[in-house]
């Protein structure tokens, strides 16, 4: 049977090529998504500044959440990565140094430090951290000019920072540090031993101690072993010595997490993206391969009829077609390995460029994603071949010969039950989207629902196409004359193969319209909720770290300022009582100034008073308080972002949108438990009788007199928020664009295959007196009919889920987004359909008519 399959493929190059391309591209996309998922599941963060330390001791960022449903069969344990840096006591260095085999212990601390590039305090990008020069040997950094900083006020710049500022050794530079912008003497220039993710400024030991965010604490310890000591064995000994200090000993690639504590969070994002878009790619691949192979088999009805007439059994015919599809599948999936890895690398670089995760994360793809892609490709080929073979193998010879003229049978039991099942599944998910899901969670049901509805439409496409051809017959004839008459006459006879061309157009339109308006609706909803949640008239920030020490008091003393509240964000985890609805995302925390928060932040008070938000207190969202079964006056145990445990008294409960639900804490209580150790912003409202423009003028005066201080109004903040949301949306646009490109390839594949098969028909039309232009005119009308039917069905399928999704996230039945997006999608669908129809037609009719008549079907 394999020899027969290979023989038939030699004479079916068009169908072979179309199916091969569909499988090759689809498998490559699945492999790329598999590589992204593997990178996310086992994130690798190579060390940079600590690369010369074989062992690194850092705070344990891993946190085990309290179990849900403890003591029952449903008891569940989840873990999370703490969002703030877990620092270690500096005295732990002596304990580590006492471990046998340790030659030297170097404490490492990152200091907030930025370099203004000009008097307007525009910061040099990348220079956000400073370090003690004593840690330079851990990279290693070496001096290319000058000397090491020895006294207060001296610094060493790395080459990148020196080039960006234009400062050489012996010059001076203004650096924004805690306490303000100060002049420092540049005494040396250093070069790193390898590529670094960010530039660096090195201070003297004296300044490093004074500027550290957390006095008496360090970020990590670099451990240099004695000669001949095994780093792995030494790491085990150190881990035992520091076990009770919430510290971990790291070796190899794991050391990078000590420098970039949150870099591994990008792995979770990658897993989600790869799972969502990998699943979408698999579904599209199944559609595309099944459609292409099914059309190819339909075009071989005469061949199958002849085989059946000379004695071939249905089983033999089925085995032949399945063998053909598997031969194509093996070739395509094996050859997809190389482009799949290249595509994965390219996608990873693009996602990193969009800021989805820190660029220090390293992409890696081994045999597992490749094998998974091959398996998916082979299963797609086998499944598509099996379904096509069932149709061809079960047809009796006489019926097959009749179907060459007027095909009538298409609704098999497989199409019927799978179509009904997909439609029911899509309707159920749409119902859940409207009634249960809210905010971002709505995406988890809307995405799968649209693919299920699209699957149902694809399965019923022959019947729908036949019906729409009947509906369009009169209007098409009315506007296109004789060409339209002949085109619709063809369509009435060829509605079954035409449905194979309609499906990829429908799928491409569905994906484009749904995913694009899905993003625009989501961004607009987030913008509206953010704007309604922000009551402040202006926001003041400082690059010098003065928000927690003096900036708030300065702002409050200005004329025209009504209220001013510090602002800092973090996350925490409920421990006592335990929250059954808590996951690794934890509880969003916002640090504010209690007596001002009511006027600077839109938080609808359910009970209690925000004026009592002082000291170890908290205001909880109503839903969270209900799950914890606590009320105003009760105490809760909370694990803060840096791992610290605190007891907080509930002073208020708040009503807010689920997507913006956050607990409020005093900024002075929350800020010390963040990585920066200070509040990041001051929210300001104007006093009665003071306009917003007058307030902004006053605050601008403060900014000009205070280097590093910046002021933004509500519109600027909202625009910045929208810009961040749109940056995240570009990630989805990138991956969706890749899927749409694949769908567009399938459109071209199918239409070219369908049109090229009709060379004999075109030759007959030429013999009957039709000119080349007339044949092209008839095919242009047919191509337009295919495009119209595909666009109409795709629009209907996308709206079937866009409407409930929009209702879930924005309380509006109409999705948000400009109409030109839809116009562009329709135009591209029509252009691709017309080009893919007319180009092969032109190739077919440009030769001699007699040769065309002799061409095989």
TrEMBL record:
<feature type="transmembrane region" description="Helical">
    <location>
        <begin position="449"/>
        <end position="474"/>
    </location>
</feature>
<keyword id="KW-0472">Membrane</keyword>
<feature type="transmembrane region" description="Helical">
    <location>
        <begin position="414"/>
        <end position="437"/>
    </location>
</feature>
<feature type="domain" description="ABC3 transporter permease C-terminal">
    <location>
        <begin position="276"/>
        <end position="395"/>
    </location>
</feature>
<keyword id="KW-0812">Transmembrane</keyword>
<feature type="transmembrane region" description="Helical">
    <location>
        <begin position="269"/>
        <end position="293"/>
    </location>
</feature>
<feature type="transmembrane region" description="Helical">
    <location>
        <begin position="495"/>
        <end position="518"/>
    </location>
</feature>
<keyword id="KW-1133">Transmembrane helix</keyword>
<dbReference type="InterPro" id="IPR003838">
    <property type="entry name" value="ABC3_permease_C"/>
</dbReference>
<dbReference type="Pfam" id="PF02687">
    <property type="entry name" value="FtsX"/>
</dbReference>
<keyword id="KW-1003">Cell membrane</keyword>
<feature type="domain" description="ABC3 transporter permease C-terminal">
    <location>
        <begin position="734"/>
        <end position="846"/>
    </location>
</feature>
<feature type="transmembrane region" description="Helical">
    <location>
        <begin position="325"/>
        <end position="348"/>
    </location>
</feature>
<feature type="transmembrane region" description="Helical">
    <location>
        <begin position="730"/>
        <end position="754"/>
    </location>
</feature>
<dbReference type="InterPro" id="IPR051447">
    <property type="entry name" value="Lipoprotein-release_system"/>
</dbReference>
<feature type="transmembrane region" description="Helical">
    <location>
        <begin position="368"/>
        <end position="393"/>
    </location>
</feature>
<protein>
    <submittedName>
        <fullName>ABC transporter permease</fullName>
    </submittedName>
</protein>
<feature type="transmembrane region" description="Helical">
    <location>
        <begin position="775"/>
        <end position="799"/>
    </location>
</feature>
<comment type="similarity">
    <text>Belongs to the ABC-4 integral membrane protein family. LolC/E subfamily.</text>
</comment>
<feature type="transmembrane region" description="Helical">
    <location>
        <begin position="819"/>
        <end position="845"/>
    </location>
</feature>
């Amino acid at each position: 049977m394999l020899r027969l399959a290979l023989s038939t493929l030699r004479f079916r190059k068009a169908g072979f090529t179309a199916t091969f391309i569909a499988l090759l591209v689809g498998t490559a996309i699945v492999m790329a998504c598999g590589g992204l998922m593997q990178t996310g599941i086992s994130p690798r963060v190579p060390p940079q500044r600590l690369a010369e330390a074989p062992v690194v001791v850092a705070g344990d960022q891993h946190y085990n959440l309290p179990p849900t449903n403890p003591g029952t069969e449903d008891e569940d344990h989840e873990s999370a990565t703490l969002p703030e840096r877990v620092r270690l006591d500096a005295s732990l260095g002596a304990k580590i140094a006492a471990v046998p085999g340790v030659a030297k212990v170097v404490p490492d601390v990152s200091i907030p430090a930025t370099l203004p590039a000009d008097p307007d305090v525009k910061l040099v990008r990348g220079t956000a951290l400073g370090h003690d020069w004593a840690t330079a040997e851990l990279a290693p950094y070496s001096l290319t000019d000058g000397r090491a900083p020895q006294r207060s006020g001296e610094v060493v710049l790395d080459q990148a920072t020196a080039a960006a500022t234009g400062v050489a050794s012996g010059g001076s530079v203004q650096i924004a540090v805690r306490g303000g912008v100060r002049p420092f003497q540049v005494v040396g220039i250093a070069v790193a031993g390898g590529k670094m993710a960010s530039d660096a400024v090195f201070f003297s030991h004296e300044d490093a101690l004074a500027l550290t965010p957390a006095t008496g604490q360090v970020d990590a310890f670099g451990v240099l072993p004695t000669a001949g000591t095994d780093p792995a064995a030494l790491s085990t000994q150190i881990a035992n010595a520091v076990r009770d200090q919430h510290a971990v000993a790291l070796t190899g690639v794991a050391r990078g997490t000590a420098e970039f504590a949150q870099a591994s969070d990008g792995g979770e994002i990658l897993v989600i993206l790869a799972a969502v878009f990998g699943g979408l790619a698999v579904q599209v691949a199944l559609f595309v391969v099944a459609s292409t192979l099914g059309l190819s088999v339909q075009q071989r009805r005469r061949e199958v009829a002849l085989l059946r007439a000379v004695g071939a059994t249905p089983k033999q015919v089925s085995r032949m077609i399945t063998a053909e599809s598997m031969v194509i599948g093996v070739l395509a999936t094996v050859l997809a390995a190389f482009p799949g890895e290249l595509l994965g690398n390219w996608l990873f670089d693009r996602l990193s460029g969009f800021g989805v995760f820190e660029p220090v994360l390293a992409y890696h793809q081994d045999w597992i994603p490749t094998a998974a892609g091959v398996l998916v490709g082979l299963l797609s080929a086998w499944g598509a071949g099996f379904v096509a073979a069932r149709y061809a193998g079960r047809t009796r010879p006489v019926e097959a010969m009749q179907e060459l003229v007027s095909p009538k049978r298409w609704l098999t039991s497989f199409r019927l039950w799978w179509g009904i099942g997909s439609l029911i599944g899509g309707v159920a998910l749409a119902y859940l989207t409207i009634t249960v899901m809210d905010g971002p969670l709505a995406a988890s049901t809307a995405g799968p629902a649209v693919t299920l509805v699209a699957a149902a439409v694809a399965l019923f496409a022959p019947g729908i196409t036949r019906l729409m051809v009947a509906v369009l017959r009169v209007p098409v004839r009315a506007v296109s004359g004789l060409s339209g008459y002949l085109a619709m006459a063809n369509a009435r006879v060829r509605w079954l193969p035409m449905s194979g061309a309609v499906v990829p157009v429908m799928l491409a339109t569905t994906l484009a319209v749904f995913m694009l308006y899905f993003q625009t609706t989501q961004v607009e909803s987030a913008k509206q909720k953010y704007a309604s949640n922000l009551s402040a008239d202006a926001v003041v920030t400082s690059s010098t770290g003065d928000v927690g020490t003096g900036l708030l008091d300065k702002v409050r003393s200005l004329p025209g300022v009504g209220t001013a509240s510090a602002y800092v964000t973090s996350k925490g985890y409920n421990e006592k009582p335990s929250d059954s609805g808590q996951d690794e995302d934890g509880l969003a925390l916002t640090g504010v100034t209690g007596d001002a928060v009511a006027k600077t932040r839109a938080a609808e008070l359910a009970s209690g008073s925000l004026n009592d938000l002082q000291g170890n207190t908290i205001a909880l969202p109503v839903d969270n308080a209900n799950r914890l079964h606590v009320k105003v006056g009760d105490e809760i145990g909370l694990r803060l972002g840096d791992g610290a445990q605190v007891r907080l008294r509930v002073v208020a409960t708040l009503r807010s949108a689920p997507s913006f639900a956050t607990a409020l804490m005093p900024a002075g209580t929350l800020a010390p438990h963040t990585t920066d150790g200070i509040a990041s912003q001051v929210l300001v409202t104007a006093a009665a009788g003071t306009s917003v423009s007058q307030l902004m003028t006053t605050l601008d005066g403060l900014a000009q007199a205070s280097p590093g201080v910046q002021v933004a109004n509500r519109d600027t903040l909202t625009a910045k928020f929208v810009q961040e949301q749109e940056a995240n949306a570009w990630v989805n646009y990138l991956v969706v664009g890749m899927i749409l490109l694949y769908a567009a390839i399938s459109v071209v594949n199918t239409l070219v295959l369908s049109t090229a098969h009709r060379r004999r028909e075109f030759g007959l039309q030429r013999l009957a007196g039709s000119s080349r232009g007339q044949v092209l005119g008839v095919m242009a009308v047919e191509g337009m009919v295919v495009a119209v039917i595909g666009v109409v069905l795709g629009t209907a399928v996308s709206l079937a889920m866009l409407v409930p999704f929009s209702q879930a996230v924005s309380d509006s039945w109409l999705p948000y987004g400009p109409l030109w997006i839809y116009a562009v999608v329709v135009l591209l669908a029509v252009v691709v359909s017309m080009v893919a129809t007319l180009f092969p037609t032109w190739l077919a009719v440009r030769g001699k008519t007699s040769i065309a008549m002799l061409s095989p079907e």
